[in-house]
From TrEMBL:
Co-factor note (free text): Binds 2 [4Fe-4S] clusters per monomer.
Protein role: Catalyzes the conversion of epoxyqueuosine (oQ) to queuosine (Q), which is a hypermodified base found in the wobble positions of tRNA(Asp), tRNA(Asn), tRNA(His) and tRNA(Tyr).
PANTHER family to which the protein is assigned, alphabetical: EPOXYQUEUOSINE REDUCTASE
Organism expressing this protein natively: Cyclobacterium jeungdonense
Subcellular localization(s) per the UniProt record: Cytoplasm
Alphabetical list of InterPro entries matching this protein: 4Fe4S_Fe-S-bd, 4Fe4S_Fe_S_CS, QueG, QueG_DUF1730
Domain of life: Bacteria
Residues given in the record as [4Fe-4S] cluster 2 binding sites: 198, 214, 241, 244
Cofactor(s) the protein needs: [4Fe-4S] cluster; cob(II)alamin
Domain 4Fe-4S ferredoxin-type: 179-208
Gene Ontology terms, MF aspect: epoxyqueuosine reductase activity
The gene coding this protein: queG
Protein name: Epoxyqueuosine reductase
Amino acid sequence: MDTRKKNSQFIKETAQMLGFDFCGIAKSAFLEEEAPKLESWLDNNYQGKMAYMANHFDKRLDPGKLVDNAQSVISLIYNYYPPKKLPEGKQNIKIAKYAYGKDYHFVIKDKLKRFLQILQEEIGEINGRAFVDSAPVMERQWAQKAGLGWTGKNSLLLNQHMGSFFFLAELIIDLPLHYDAPIAKDYCGNCTRCLDACPTDAILQANLVDASKCISYLTIELKEEIPEEFKGKMENWAFGCDICQDVCPWNRFSRPHQEPEFLPPTELESLDWEEMTKETFDRVFKKSALKRSKWEGLRRNIKFIRVNQS
């Protein structure tokens, strides 16, 4: 076995040891095909108020601008599908499954740091950086190039073995490796369940999402008042939204995660969302992704749901 294949095999074994479900490796290169797509998406203002999406255009397309002499992009999948759904209770408030437990940035970033450390100890001096939804990396595109899945009509990466309820993470390193073949086929076929189910019509067409209409954007990223055009369309989602994933046939292959830190705190199962004080919010969601919306944002979302229920 040559050195590149040996190192690639070690990387995949290490990924499995650290709890990642899948690992694929792609050659670092400028994402030439993605450049016009990204430019068009931004020109149409589909990013809404997420001004940061227009920043670092070149870095999003070229890993070499994030890591000097980048040779390989290692893409990783980490499952977050919960063993059971949170009860909605009498208040019928919903939060996205990814936010049930501890913020994934903390959990996965620690694993990535350890990953890079192990590689440096075993293989030698490696320059690289770890990313988990925290820098201008087009993670779904790289995961597809690494053979981990294909892009669904809802623009999420779909994996044949586990659907889409997972996080993506990357290591970009300056080490040449043995590269995986991309998945070229679109296994969605003629299915349009995600388009049909989206209550705000955020999915404009296959693999084109107007983020400014997405419930996840409206409840997390948007800091202003939610526009009246979405009155009666939120379907009780107060933080994030899983609708396009819940209806996806490929998610019949989802299986419960094995990460204790993704389990919800006991208090969350019987939380009084409408009467929750800031003190309670700060305690229950101390290390949660819900901190992104803050207490004020969550109150705004719940108020909008209640006032504008159809």
